[in-house]
Structure formats: structure tokens, C-alpha cells
TrEMBL record:
InterPro entries: DUF4429, SHOCT
Residues that span the membrane, as ranges: none
Origin: domain of life: Bacteria
Protein name: Tat pathway signal sequence domain protein
Location of the DUF4429 domain: 15-109, 140-229
Domain SHOCT: 256-283
Species this chain originates from: Streptomyces regalis
Organism classification: Bacteria, Bacillati, Actinomycetota, Actinomycetes, Kitasatosporales
Length: 286
């Protein structure tokens, strides 16, 4: 950058432009997204940046965004496109009257960029360990070498109780599958090298996965955890491709069908067993 140390402050974050990187410091305010507060700061080397965009925002704002090279950041690799604009840690929202200044810095950044293809290694640091969070069915912890799942009797399935608490050395893993808890049925699944070709079980039945629920496994806790594990796995060997999420039916449609089933049950037109079986079938379609 032409002027080392320049700072551009926006809503929830400030970007400091240095000669070889952009240092992003996040605010710790009540309205600041919890993911930003959890990350504290991110240093993005210029070699990790593929492009820069400046677009109109909502209600008199503009948004300056750094587009990272594929494979450059473990956080975005773990997120796999599931973060919304408001939760994008590389998107700086500014008042519209700062548009000219933002355009200046965007141009300065673009002039420094040299590579846009996939990165051979993670260029942005992973969140620091140790890390832990509570999922719906267990507690996940990671010390940098081993991932551990300790099941909760109130939420874990019988399959997980039968398997017992789990420990996964990083050397035995090939990747991480993270499904946002803001989507239906979020989970964190560890992909193992010895079962790369096996069909994964439902997350609530898989001892290599923890599932999320209301208040359990929120993005700001589970995503940095997933990113840290992914970075450690990448150091130990090649990563496996993350399975595509199976298509799900419209939750609104399923909810309506369950409501109708409940009306039939209340009217005495279906038995207790029929109601339980059919409801389970409908939930399985989500």
C-alpha cells in the first residue's frame, strides 16, 4: 500500500492497510456480530486476496469486500459459502459518504494483487486453540492435536451412547464438514481417512459428528472450531472433498403436513403409534 498504517473504519470493524497485508480489527459492541467478536482480528496477506469489490449497501451505506483466493483461509473453507453477508468477516460496511475514500483503498489494493488462483496452503491464520463448544448432543473440544466429543445424556442418540465418548487424532482425519446452525439441522462432522468411501450416517447417529440445536453450536463458536481443525488436518495431509449437502424439502411444507397430522391425531383419526411413526417420517424428509 502507498501509505502504510492507513486505517478505514466502518461499522463493526476497522481495516488497517499495511505494506503486505490488511489487518482487520473487529469491534466488541452489542450490535457487532458475535462471530466478529470471537475472531477479534484477522490479518489477510495480500497474496491471499483474489479481488476487491465496492457495492451499494442498505440504507445509505456501501460495502467494501475482500475476495479471498480459494483455499487461502480455513474459516471460509469450513464455512463453504454458508455465511450471510452480515456475517462475512471480510466485508466492511461504511456510510455512503465514505464511498470515495473506500474506492481509493479498493484501487490501491487491486494494484498490489498478483495471484487469483487457488492457494496451495492456508495463508490466513486459523483461530487459536484450545477451543471448545457445546453442541446439542455433546461437548466438542480441540487442543490442536486431538478432537474430543463427550456426549450429553440429555441429547445424544442411543447409537452415540453405545459408541461412547470419542477421540480423533488429527492424523486420522481428512477434513471437516460444517453445516451452519442457522440452517435446518446443522452439525459438525469429522471426515476420517479410514472411511473416506463410506456413506455417512445421519449426523445424530454418527459418533464422528455433533449436532446443533437452538442455542447449541452457534456460528461464532462452532465455525472457528471447524476452521482450526481443518487447518490442523491440512498440515498433516491432503484434504478430502466435503460431501454436498443433501437437498431438503421445504421446511414450511413439512411443518404444514405435521400440523395437519396433529389435527387428525387430536380428532382421534390416527393412533398414538401411527402419529409417532408418520411424524418421524416427515421430519426425516427435512
Amino acid at each position: 500500500m502507498s501509505r502504510m498504517g492507513d486505517v478505514l473504519a466502518g461499522f463493526h470493524a476497522a481495516w488497517e492497510f499495511e505494506s503486505d497485508s490488511v489487518l482487520i480489527r473487529y469491534e466488541r459492541g452489542i450490535r457487532t456480530p458475535k462471530l466478529f467478536q470471537s475472531l477479534v482480528e484477522r490479518r489477510v496477506p495480500l497474496e491471499a486476496i483474489a479481488g476487491v469489490t465496492l457495492t451499494p449497501g442498505k440504507r445509505g451505506t456501501v460495502a467494501l469486500r475482500i475476495e479471498l483466493r480459494p483455499g487461502a483461509d480455513p474459516l471460509l473453507e469450513a464455512a463453504a459459502g454458508q455465511l450471510k453477508d452480515g456475517g462475512d468477516p471480510y466485508r466492511l460496511v461504511l456510510p455512503a459518504d465514505k464511498e470515495t475514500l473506500a474506492e481509493y483503498y479498493a484501487d490501491e489494493l487491486r494494484a498490489q494483487l498478483k495471484q487469483a488462483g487457488p492457494a496451495d496452503e492456508f495463508l490466513v491464520a486459523a483461530p487459536e486453540v484450545p477451543l471448545q463448544f457445546k453442541a446439542y448432543d455433546g461437548k466438542a473440544s480441540f487442543d490442536g492435536e486431538t478432537v474430543r466429543f463427550r456426549w450429553f445424556w440429555t441429547g445424544a442418540s442411543s447409537a452415540k451412547w453405545k459408541a461412547g465418548d470419542q477421540s480423533f487424532p488429527v492424523a486420522e482425519l481428512s477434513g471437516v464438514e460444517w453445516r451452519s446452525p442457522e440452517l435446518f439441522e446443522g452439525h459438525l462432522r469429522l471426515l476420517r481417512r479410514d472411511s473416506a468411501d463410506a456413506q455417512p450416517a445421519q449426523a445424530d447417529q454418527d459418533p464422528a459428528a455433533v449436532v446443533f440445536g437452538l442455542g447449541y453450536g452457534p456460528v461464532h463458536e462452532s465455525l472457528p472450531f471447524a476452521a482450526a481443525v481443518l487447518a490442523a488436518v491440512r498440515k498433516s495431509g491432503p484434504l478430502a472433498a466435503v460431501p454436498a449437502a443433501a437437498p431438503r424439502r421445504d421446511p414450511a411444507d413439512i411443518a404444514e403436513r405435521i400440523r395437519h397430522l396433529g389435527e387428525l391425531y387430536e380428532a382421534g383419526l390416527v393412533t398414538d403409534e401411527e402419529f409417532s411413526v408418520k411424524k418421524a417420517e416427515l421430519l426425516a424428509e427435512l
